[in-house]
Amino acid sequence: MPAEESSNQPEKIYLPRTSESDALKKIRHTASHVMAMAVQKLFPKAQVTIGPWIENGFYYDFDSPEPFTEKDLKAIKKEMIKIINRKLPVTREEVSREEAERRIKENNEPYKLEILEGLQEPITLYHVGDQWWDLCAGPHLESTAELKADAIDLESVAGAYWRGDETKAQLQRIYGTAWETPEQLTEYKRRKEEAIKRDHRKIGKELGLFIFSDLVGPGLPMWTPKGTVLRSTLETFLQKEQTKRGYLPVVTPHIARVDLFKMSGHWQKYQEDMFPLMAEDDESRAAEQGFVMKPMNCPFHIQIYKSELRSYRELPMRLAEFGTVYRYEQSGELGGLTRVRGFTVDDSHLFVTPEQLDSEFLSVVDLILSVFKSLQLKNFKARLSFRDPASDKYIGSDEAWEKAQGAIRRAVETLGMNYFEGIGEAAFYGPKLDFIFSDALDREWQLGTVQVDYNLPERFDLEYVAEDGTRKRPVMIHRAPFGSLERLIGILIEEYAGDFPVWLAPIQVRLLAVGDEFLPFAQQVVEQMKEIGIRAEVDLSGDRLGKLIRNAEKEKIPVMAVVGAKEVEANALSIRTRASGELGSLPVAEVLERMQGAIANYTNF
Ligand SMILES: [Zn+2]
Ligand SMILES: [Zn+2]
User: Quick one: pLDDT at residue 329?
Assistant: First the structure.
């Protein structure tokens, strides 16, 4: 199904997030207690542990002798409706620690005793009617009557461990969701289904863009020929923009001596995210001597800057590389392309004089915005990712941080951008301006980033010769409009639901001949197209037209060109596109022109 059919909603229903809505917090807290009460009614041996709200609903963890089934979920939901219909009051009671302990022991609930130990005064209990209570800090609704049974659903059961610790008791987690209205629940379910359909891991496989292999290892995608065409199209697109703006390409190695990363501070502040040291023997390992895979490209570009004495005339110097980096993500956190262990950053480091900082920063933001526009990514906001002054995970002086954060704030204010602050989200060497993109399903993804850095120039003792002949310190800007190619492609697949615009599609047009006798004509048109850089091919399977069309649809090829006797006669192609359906017969010359136009302007055919 083309993306248009599913994303053209007549009227968009806004779904609030729990973290932003007190009303939802109350609903979800209350619904979770009602669920736990229903579970204990039906399964008296089940013990309750924790039951918090989450972004789209709530869960409760139970210790229960038999595993819950889908059928059990239905029965639990039924029981919940009964509780809701009884209109039970939800009441708060403050008790002493001793009293809480006494009541927990009376109910024989050992998990709650452990929870109680970790609680601060005052200890509050929430009662649902007079039969059931749990330790909770609230907030809640005043009565179960305020819950809407048709805006609640139980979603799934999953295994969990007590306190998230694999050595502790295995529990069963029931996930539920609860909303203000039934319409919100329906919309939530629609988005969930749509998210499954758009899942880039699924579509990536169907379209044959990338693979993973157990032998290679988790989080290490490999790009097939089609996926590689997609990647290099994105690279070429950005390179072109960068060349226009005075960026200089560089290439650097994937590993380096650990000393490089000691000097940059990565080894001290970022080691957890790095693959371990490659040491020749135990002695060098103990001395922390050897090589590491690079987690970032910055120190390499710094070496290129430092390889000569630079003059103010050379600044700003903008070094750019599609640099593949390796980060040690926990294997449990890896999923598709959005979290990987090896990925390619569209990285660039700008070395600028302090006077050039503001204008260079603005032009980087301008580049990022124009990239988003070409990719048709419209819905985003900017996050000022600042340091948490209380944390010790950063390098550099307070003064350097203040200056860098000030520069970012000035830029967003100059541009009048929609922004918010993220304290503690900075890189260890400097603050960032991050672009957070909301996709067609209102999910948020971090895309591009720009960072201002006074610290690495200091640590590497970078200099330039100023106009007056003195040596001065440059400022660095780190930036990556895509963030990483892997992540961007994952997001684009989901945003477009696999329907890439013509300029990005690995195969842009496929010619379908209604009989073998028309293949030579089709082949000749394909040659003409290839000549001018259009990615075209002929389907040589010899299948009937219906099957040829179905296959091209399945592969989401944006333009199909059918060739029969009439087309050969008129030197024309019968065009059918994913975006606008049947366009009828068009002269070959016009098709070529329109294809070129769509590619050059990042639009549809
Ligand atoms: Zn609660
Ligand atoms: Zn960097």
Answer: 86
Residues of the chain with CATH 3.30.980.10: 18-198
Written as six digits, the tokens of 307 are 């390889």
Question: Ligand 1 centre and the CA of 141: distance in Å?
Answer: 10
Q: What tokens does 283 get?
A: 């002695």
Residue range(s) occupied by CATH 3.30.930.10 in the chain: 210-254+294-496
For residue 235, count other CB atoms closer than 10 A to its CB. Answer: 15
Distance 450 CA to ligand 2 centre (A): 9
Residue 121 backbone phi and psi in degrees, to 5: -70, 155
DSSP-derived pairing of the beta strands 317-326 and 248-249: parallel
Tell which residue, 326, 300, 252, has the closest CA to residue 486: 326
CATH 3.30.1330.10 holds for 210-254+294-496? no
Ligand that lies nearest to the alpha carbon of residue 26, given by its number in the listed order: 1
Match domain 509-601 to its CATH number in 3.40.50.800, 1.20.120.530, 3.30.565.10, 3.40.50.300. 3.40.50.800
Ligand nearest to the CA of 27: 1
pLDDT 10s digits, 563-574: 999 999 999 999
Residue 70 CB neighbours (<10 A): 9
So what's the pLDDT on residue 10? Answer: 53
Q: Are 173 and 68 in contact (CB under 8 A)?
A: no
Distance in Å, CA 136 to ligand 1 centroid: 5
pLDDT-derived band of residue 193, with 50, 70 and 90 as boundaries?
very high
Asked whether 502 and 374 are in contact (CB, 8 A), the reply is no
Q: In what order do the strands lie in the sheet with 123-128?
A: 90-95, 123-128, 132-135
Give the residue among 333, 340, 476 at the shortest CA–CA distance from 407.
476
In CATH, the number for domain 18-198 is 3.30.980.10
Q: SS3 for 321? A: strand
For residue 436, the SS3 value is strand
What residues sit around ligand 2, an ion, with C-beta below 5 angstroms?
A: 298, 478
Task: Delimit the CATH 3.40.50.800 region(s) of the chain.
Answer: 509-601
The ligand whose atoms approach the alpha carbon of 31 most closely is: 1
Q: What spacing in Å lies between the alpha carbon of 37 and ligand 1's midpoint? A: 12
- pLDDT higher at 6 or 530: 530
Q: How sure is the predictor about 5, in pLDDT bands with cuts at 50, 70 and 90?
A: very low
